């Protein structure tokens, strides 16, 4: 990337990025990624977001093959593309080249100081055992976590209350076993500080905010602070390497709702990095950690590398077009390629953990595969948590305690676990690079509401849905499958 080409006046009109197609580098992912043409496509209406087509549009693949500064071989992070004219932002200093551009010329020809903000999105976790049930309520009240058909959506909150109360004792046990709360907030705050420092070292002064989806500091609080600080350009960076409707998609939906109803925010230029699992820095950082842990085994070459990703219900992928599974497989492929390039030819496998409720989730399931591997005679296994970048309940309790015990019982003798990336410096530096690369594509969102949302406000159709919905929901709740799930405490 030609660094000097970034510095200049802010364009007076919104940029539009030309529509180009790129193929994924991974043989397993054959879908074609097309780059969005309009700014509104970056910040999609919920209905649109979940169509297979628009999710693919939102994948970050390959557009960045073009944009990497150093001609790296991996695809890099931000979803969308560079500024086609290259004239929009004062990023020269960011790359340590050229003059530091401290201001931009606004539409009234006044020089205004640029204030860059970075918003990190994450899930959040209960900090005390008393927080567990309300945290679970927030999680299950999210229509991106429990996806009810439209006529049943009025049941979301009562159902969330019921499930959160039923699940709380089991979850509390888990949180109690890791010290009484989630470490996610502390780690995410440290990552935020790290990214701020890495950006500073690269010449970009930015405020870095943390917005959690289900616990403090909530996304709404972060946005409030962003407004207070009068940020003039925002990069949104979800701390999930792979996009899922249930994680990044859910957080973006919250942002969209807030932004579309606020005059200042809807004009704020914003760039969203929707997934970054294929960035060179991330892949190499993962390979570094795996390589280090492999060396702790007596015979590193005989160790099975066991990637364990958080699962999602199968319908997300099969019906709603969630790209999560494809992105996960591509991610594993890239990590294994990197390990091979370093001379490690270990066997590997991918399985999905943490399923909740009576529905089918992505397979194979981690617990089942561990038992099978033990039965097949695998003796050494290195677990790699791959959908998370911080330690939390599902690494510290589920993998380190439950799965380790199961593996040892199943015949696996040597167990290891790769730590989550946390504040690993190569990783934090790469996230800072992703922010810098994304900045030029920042555009303000469209505030147009979809017609389907408007129709929700139509009283007559709402009343009809309520009546039929209530009857159907009652029947559904009494169905044997749901009752069995409750009895077995699957929730
Ligand atoms: C890629 C990451 C994650 C996906 C995908 C995801 C989907 C998903 N999760 C649930 C239900 C629960 N998740 C819980 C905790 C939790 N989930 C993630 C990440 C993903 N979830 C993280 C990082 C955490 C831990 C937060 C922390 O406290 O440290 C929980 C609570 C814990 C428990 O009771 O097990 C639930 C419940 C669903 C239903 C879902 C997809 C639809
Ligand atoms: Fe989860």
UniProtKB/TrEMBL annotation:
Compartment list: Plastid, Chloroplast
Alphabetized UniProt keyword annotations: Chloroplast, Heme biosynthesis, Iron, Lyase, Membrane, Plastid, Porphyrin biosynthesis, Transmembrane, Transmembrane helix
Stated family: Belongs to the ferrochelatase family.
Transmembrane segments: 459-479
First-level EC class: lyase
GO molecular function annotations of the record: ferrochelatase activity
NCBIfam families reported in the protein's UniProt record: hemH
InterPro entries: Ferrochelatase, Ferrochelatase_AS, Ferrochelatase_C, Ferrochelatase_N
Pathway: Porphyrin-containing compound metabolism; protoheme biosynthesis; protoheme from protoporphyrin-IX: step 1/1
Name assigned to this protein: Ferrochelatase
PANTHER family: FERROCHELATASE, FERROCHELATASE-1, CHLOROPLASTIC_MITOCHONDRIAL
Function: Catalyzes the ferrous insertion into protoporphyrin IX.
EC number(s) reported in the record: 4.98.1.1
Catalytic activity of the protein: heme b + 2 H(+) = protoporphyrin IX + Fe(2+)
BP-aspect Gene Ontology terms: heme biosynthetic process
PROSITE patterns named in the record: FERROCHELATASE
Gene Ontology CC terms, in alphabetical order: chloroplast; mitochondrion
């Amino acid at each position: 990337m030609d660094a000097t080409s970034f510095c200049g006046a802010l364009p007076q009109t919104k940029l539009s990025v030309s529509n180009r197609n790129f193929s994924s580098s991974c043989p397993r992912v054959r879908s074609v990624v097309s780059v969005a043409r309009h700014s509104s496509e970056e910040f999609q209406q919920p209905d649109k977001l979940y169509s297979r087509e628009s999710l693919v549009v939102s994948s970050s693949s390959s557009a960045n093959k073009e944009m990497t500064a150093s001609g790296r071989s991996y695809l890099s992070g931000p979803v969308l593309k560079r500024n086609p004219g290259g004239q929009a932002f004062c990023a020269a200093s960011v790359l340590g080249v050229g003059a530091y551009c401290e201001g931009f010329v606004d539409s009234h020809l006044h020089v205004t100081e640029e204030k860059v903000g970075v918003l990190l999105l994450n899930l959040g976790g209960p900090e005390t055992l008393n927080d567990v049930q309300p945290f679970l309520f927030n999680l299950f009240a999210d229509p991106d976590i429990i996806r009810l058909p439209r006529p049943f959506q009025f049941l979301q909150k009562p159902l969330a209350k019921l499930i959160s109360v039923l699940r709380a004792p089991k979850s509390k046990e888990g949180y109690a076993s890791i010290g009484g709360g989630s470490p996610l907030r502390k780690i995410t705050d440290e990552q935020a500080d790290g990214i701020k420092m890495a950006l500073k070292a690269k010449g970009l002064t930015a405020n870095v905010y943390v917005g959690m989806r289900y616990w403090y500091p909530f996304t709404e609080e972060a946005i409030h602070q962003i407004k207070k600080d009068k940020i003039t350009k925002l990069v949104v960076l979800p701390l999930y390497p792979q996009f899922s409707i249930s994680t990044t998609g859910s957080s973006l939906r919250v942002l969209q709702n807030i932004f579309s109803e606020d005059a200042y925010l809807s004009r704020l230029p914003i760039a969203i990095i929707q997934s970054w699992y294929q960035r060179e820095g991330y892949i190499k950082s993962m390979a570094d950690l795996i390589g280090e842990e492999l060396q702790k085994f007596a015979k590193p070459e005989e160790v099975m590398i066991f990637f364990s990703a958080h699962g999602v219900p199968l319908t997300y992928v099969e019906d709603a077009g969630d790209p999560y599974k494809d992105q996960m497989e591509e991610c594993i492929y890239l990590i294994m390629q990197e390990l091979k390039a370093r001379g490690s030819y270990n066997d590997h496998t991918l399985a999905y953990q943490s399923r909740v409720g009576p529905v089918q989730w992505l397979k194979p399931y981690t617990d089942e595969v561990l038992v099978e591997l033990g039965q097949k005679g695998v003796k050494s296994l290195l677990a790699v948590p791959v959908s998370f970048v911080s330690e939390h309940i599902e690494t510290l309790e589920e993998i380190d305690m439950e799965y380790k015990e199961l593996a040892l019982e199943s015949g696996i003798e040597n167990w290891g676990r790769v730590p989550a990336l946390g504040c690993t410096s190569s990783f934090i530096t790469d996230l800072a690079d992703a922010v810098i690369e994304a900045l030029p594509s920042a555009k303000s969102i469209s505030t147009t509401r979809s017609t389907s949302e408007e129709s929700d406000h139509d009283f007559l159709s709402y009343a009809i849905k309520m009546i039929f919905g209530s009857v159907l929901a009652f029947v559904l709740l009494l169905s044997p499958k749901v009752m069995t799930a409750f009895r077995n405490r699957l929730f």
